[in-house]
Amino acid sequence: MGTFVAAFLAMFFAAAIVMACGGLIETGIRTAVPPQQLASADIVVAGNQEYDARGGDPDEPAILPERVRVDAGLEDTISDLPGVQDTTAYVFDGDPPAGTVDAIGVVTEPGADVSEVREAIDAELDGATTTLVGDQRGQAELREAKGTSVNIVALAGVFTAFAIMVSVFGVASMLALSITQRQQELALLRAIGSTPRQVRRLILRETLALSLAATALAIAPGRFLGEFVFDQLADRGIATEGVAFHQGWIPTVAAMGIAVVAALAGALGAGRRAARIRPTQALAEASLEGRLIGGWRVFIALLLIGGGVALTFVSIAVMSGPLTPATAAPAVIVFAIGFALLAPVLAKVMTFVLQWPVRALGGVTGQLAVLNARGRTGRMAAVMAPVVLLTGVATGMLYLQTTNDDADRQIFADSLVADAVVTAENRLDPELVERIDELPGVAGASEYVGSTGFIESPDDSSPAGEGWNLQGVTARGADATTPVDVTAGAFADLRGDTVAVEDQHAGRLSVDVGDTITLRMGDNTTIDAQVAALFSAPDDYDTLLLPAETLAAHTTEGFATRILVTADPDTDPGTLRAELTQTLADENGLTVSGRDVLFSEYDEQRTTATFAIYIMVIMIAGYAAITVINTLASSTTARRREFGLQRLAGSTRGQVLRMVGIEGAIVAVSGVALGTLASIAILVPVSLKRLDSVLPSGSPFIYAATAGLAVLLTLSATLLPAWRATRGRPAESALAIE
Known about the structure:
Low-confidence stretches: none
Radius of gyration: 32 Å
Largest sheet: 10 strands, mixed
Number of helices: 23
Helix content: 55-70%
């Protein structure tokens, strides 16, 4: 019963995690936002926030960062259509350009077919405008919903892929251990005349019944887990508050199917040898160690490790900057699973390495623990594999995130040269920049506007094909407030529809000063911008510089609210901030702060993004931890008869528990060491590339906590079941059936 319960729990938690991930994906796809101000409208006409970026995937369009507005003249056109009773224009945020609105609410006449009216409206719209019905109507109020929902789909997709890989491995490992512990029972079935087919059918039917029950019971917990994770993401700004969580039958059935198929595949693989072995040989080998490792297992393990090597090469040779984790994170998973699959071989190696210190420190009890570990490599490998997975995934993913965070922050610091930031509550006075620029001790002052855009022409084949950072600057102060050096043209020419481009990017685009490029702005409008200057900049500076007033006109706010100020080399930044504060004291709504405010905002954004990674690590590591406890407890409990015989032979209960503790320590140390090796395989190359350091960035406490947790779980899940298994009389335990 113990092994059945353990297998049941492995399937239950695997199904719950995959269901939760499926719910997140469905929520992101639906982007259901119950309307508030637009609740009375049957149809909402709003800007299309999706954009098919040149060179991008048409099935995964980019999400425009600014409010895409609607031509106000459409209201009259729509009101004249048949079936339309009333129309209302809405403005939700920012300062829209003259004549445009944020959305148009449409109320249909009583009895009119909403779908037919919607088709009639669609016929009057261009690609930059769309119609919304049902719970989609709220997207017009919360324009961020579409963007964050795309992020949720991408994030949940990664969650799901990793969860499936880890859970399938966990279920298969648990079933393999379960069937191994039933070897004597299966051998007796073969000895009394059961055919291999009957044994296979027995194992498959047992597993099918168990998996169906486990996945059915996981439906409610899976939904609760999915909604809980979504709420956590919404609380931290990764998802938009107001989006409704949905988990329908599709992710539920898909998760059940994945869990059942994984269980059946694991049962089929684990029971294959038990079904094919000859009856007499089965009885003889029931209490002996079988073949060390199967050929297919070795093949899959080497395939995964090879895949990890390939992903590592791509991470360091192809990916750049913030894109590195896209291939480095999967490498962590495949390396960890590859090492875990090779556990039977690696367990032999680790036992050989650890036998001398164990014998020296443990005496006779340590010697017996080593003999047990060497004689039962298969069982040791089964309990060591989840420890490898737990350590490898947690250590690799966490240090990968801290390393990339540190590298990205250094890039941000290198790109920030301003010493003071002036922030306005509302629109800035255009003359304020000139006044600040003329103050003593000021090297330069510039308005600051940020957005994202796309190069439509010429053909953009650069790494920034998914979008460029756009920064609005003041021509006079751009030299002093940006980390660039002009190599051609002049920033003084940044007036009107002009742009400055990094010279290497300009070379890839085949443009020079005086040429024209077509930019798709964040509000889905296009401008033909003339190249006014070329500049050199630090690596990963994928930024186009435009006049602040030009860029601001294409943002949701419609105006700049910040001025960056750089001090002269002879002026102390603190003195500059104090003088600015005194000079602007009479100005209402202005705040002077140091560059730390920009770092704080950046760190807050990075913390928000990092939280999503922590959620994923917690889910995967949590499942691995459950598997560790599950596997170890099941394996130790099954040794009740062995413990009884050992005590009848003269060992005390304390000696038995010390032996089990040493065995657990061997498993823990081996699993932590191999998991660490699996994570190092990707962490060292990434650290060398991004930080020029062999050691990854991050607190040593992360590793200490991860390793400590693995050791604590291993020893607890070993000693507690052993303590319980040795409570009774030795004779009763010796007569127990394993």
